[in-house]
Amino acid sequence: MYINLISHYLPEQIINNDYFKDVNGLTDEWIVSRTGIKERRRASSQENTNTMAIDAVERSIKNLSYSISDIDLIIGATYTPFDTVVGLAHSIQSHYKIDKAKAINITSACSSFVNAVEIVEGYFAMNKAEKALVIASEHNSVYGNESDKQSGHLWGDGAAAIFISKKRLSDNDLKIIDVNTEGLGNIGHPDESVYLHPLNGGLRMPNGKEVFINANKYMAKSLDDILKKNSMSINDVNYVIPHQANIRIIENVRSQLEIGKEKMVVNIDKLGNTGSASTPIALAQIIKKIKHNDVIGITVFGGGYSSGAMIIKK
User: Fold this and answer.
1) Averaged over 274-279, what is the pLDDT?
2) Model confidence pTM above 0.90
3) Has 214 been annotated as catalytic?
């Protein structure tokens, strides 16, 4: 599989930490020291999960080497949908009038993007698709509970669009060497650790400690496992893109992997936790820095629980 194009969209509104002093009593110093977040983006009242996804597509479509109508598989990855009936993938299909495509919407919390790529792999292997569009978009602010001192300050909004083909289409394509995900609903207390109850408290993380412990463990393990499977080591990797949940988790994973800070891609300080969109947004942000033969490792953990990792090579 090959990534032909990737782009991202971030809302214009910036919410810095001082905002939360009046909302939930947390200071900038407290938030930064515990999360690494200094600011985050918030969608406007005219934006939602679907519109941000369309904006992400619009930022790249002019550079697409084929017509978007050639897409035969669309997968929307989100846990914060605008509409749970007409899902993210179908909204994109409708907007661009893509008549050939299968459309699927998935949610596995913050690992949804990697799950989506693995689904693409399956459709390609079955010869049921050849060109896919994966959309990861999160509108956390519309579900978030800002007054919640545990997690109200964590969330940011944003989206990314990734065009993937079964065959290499240009020398600029990124090769997806491998992708793997793992359901972890059998561990801990997934029903209680993070939840989104729209009519009863919104998006909250009452058992953050358990999420923290498992994210530290499985993000390092998932990347290490997939590298070993492909007879590679962390020394072969030029960039590691972890899910942007908490700077302490990112630093802990970096320590476990024994890599320098220069290899770790971090955007949580400016964007907060953008959920399943965090890793593709980060990939889009560094895409121009990636050189021929560079290897990128992506590793994620979802609060549901689930984990996953990808290896990409220029």
Assistant:
1) 98
2) yes
3) no
